[in-house]
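Workshop exercise sheet. Pairs work together: one partner reads the sequence aloud, the other fills in the structure field after running the prediction. Swap roles for the next sheet.
Pair: D.N. / O.F.
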Amino acid sequence: MVASRRSTDVVPFSVEDMMKANGGAYHKGDDWTSFVVTDGKRVADQNPVSSGENCAQAAGIAERQLIARD
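Structure field:
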C-alpha cells in the first residue's frame, strides 16, 4: 500500500472513525514511532516499533499489582 493512500481505499471503513462515532477514545502517534497508551490496567500500542515500550508498561502494571497484594 502506498503511504499516502488512505486505508479506506483498501478497507471499507476507518477504525478511527468508527471508534470516535461510537464514543471511543482514539489516540495515535506519528507513523512508525513508538506510541503506547495505558489506563493503568490495559496497554495498547500502535505498531511493532512500540513493542518494547508496551512490554515495559505491562511489566510496570504487573509489578504494581503484585506489590498491592502484599
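Discussion prompt: The mean pLDDT is 87. What would you look at next?
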